[in-house]
């Protein structure tokens, strides 16, 4: 990109954001004529009208809006590149955008973010809780925490696997006192299952490990199917049946005695916990500091499995 092309982008962006050449000129410490000529030069080079001039205000055309979005990304990347070159700074600062899954974000990530923010007062954290797929580039995310497979990631994304879920079968102690505690898979299948219901209406099967160590998903009949993991935990604690849950989700309930681990010898590994970030941002002090803090995330806390009195 030539110097002149870059020089013309800045007045154009300022004109769009300020709504007039005069206000853009004041912002850039230029004359209104200089800003107007710069935008006209840009339009002539592109062969497209970017701004409609009115007596009161500039109006952005469809082509101008599309070009403006591109210019914003270019200027942001230039600013980030300058920050990378100054990565020797010891104080992470600036806006930091993090995307996390809903429930794991609350239970697993937030306990680490509180001391992180206390340690780095110069960082302004923006946190998005969502179970949907988040596009880091389209949504301006610096780091994402994901539970699930991260195959076929583009080369522009960095990825670090923190660990894998450990799945456990569990139920409320009073349910097991009424229905009995299963000691093998055949007995387990006779109990009332509480399953997770996917968006498409299907239910998530239970995960087992075969004799040769391979994962095996098995569909099971169920008493209740819920499309929310927190609701699953509530149903289990209420004694409505048996469920297979990740340890990070039921750890606290097991410690408090609200849930009991069943068949502790059967704890297969579930989904992977990964950190994902744009590679061009990984040398930014704020991103590097966050990645180091999130490296302490725990996805499979150990669970005690005290025996029930029969």
Automatic annotation (TrEMBL):
Which keywords has UniProt assigned to this entry? DNA-binding, Transcription, Transcription regulation
Output the superkingdom of the source species: Bacteria
Give the record's family classification.
Belongs to the LysR transcriptional regulatory family.
Q: CDD domains, per this entry?
A: PBP2_CrgA_like_6 (cd08475)
Protein name stated in the entry: DNA-binding transcriptional regulator, LysR family
What residue stretches are annotated with the HTH lysR-type domain?
4-61
Pfam families hit by this protein = HTH_1, LysR_substrate
This entry's Gene Ontology molecular function terms read: DNA-binding transcription factor activity; sequence-specific DNA binding
Q: Which PROSITE patterns match?
A: HTH_LYSR
Q: Which InterPro entries match?
A: LysR-type_TF_proteobact-type, LysR_HTH_N, LysR_subst-bd, WH-like_DNA-bd_sf, WH_DNA-bd_sf
Question: Do you know which SUPFAM superfamilies this protein is assigned to?
Answer: Periplasmic binding protein-like II, Winged helix' DNA-binding domain
Gene Ontology terms describing biological process: DNA-templated transcription
Q: Indicate whether Transmembrane helix appears among the record's keywords.
A: no
């Amino acid at each position: 990109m030539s110097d002149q092309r870059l020089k013309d982008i800045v007045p154009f962006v300022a004109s769009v954001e300020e709504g007039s050449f005069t206000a853009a000129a004041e912002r850039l410490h230029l004359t209104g004529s200089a800003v107007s000529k710069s935008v006209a030069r840009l339009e002539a080079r592109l062969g497209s009208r970017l701004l409609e001039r009115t007596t009161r205000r500039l109006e952005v055309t469809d082509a101008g809006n599309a070009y403006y979005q591109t210019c914003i990304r270019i200027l942001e990347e230039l600013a980030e590149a300058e920050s990378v070159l100054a990565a020797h700074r010891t104080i992470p600062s600036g806006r930091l955008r993090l995307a996390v899954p809903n429930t794991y974000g609350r239970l697993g990530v937030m306990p680490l973010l509180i001391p992180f923010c206390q340690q780095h007062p110069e960082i302004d954290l923006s946190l998005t809780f969502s179970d949907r797929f988040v596009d880091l580039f389209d949504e301006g995310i610096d780091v994402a925490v994901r539970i699930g497979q991260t195959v076929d990631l583009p080369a522009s994304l960095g990825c670090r696997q923190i660990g894998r879920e450990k799945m456990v079968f569990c139920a409320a102690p009073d349910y097991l006192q009424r229905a009995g505690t299963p000691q093998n898979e055949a007995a387990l299948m006779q109990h009332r299952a509480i399953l997770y219901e996917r968006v498409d209406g299907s239910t998530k099967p239970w995960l087992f490990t075969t004799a040769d160590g391979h994962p095996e998903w098995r569909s099971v009949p169920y008493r209740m199917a819920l499309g929310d993991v927190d609701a699953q935990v509530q149903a289990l604690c209420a004694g409505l049946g048996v469920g297979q849950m990740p340890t990070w989700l039921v750890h606290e309930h097991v410690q408090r005695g609200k849930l009991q681990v069943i068949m502790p010898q059967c704890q297969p590994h579930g989904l992977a916990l990964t950190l994902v970030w744009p590679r061009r941002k990984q040398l930014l002090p704020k991103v590097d500091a966050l990645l180091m803090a999130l490296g302490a995330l725990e996805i499979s806390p150990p669970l005690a499995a005290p025996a029930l009195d029969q």
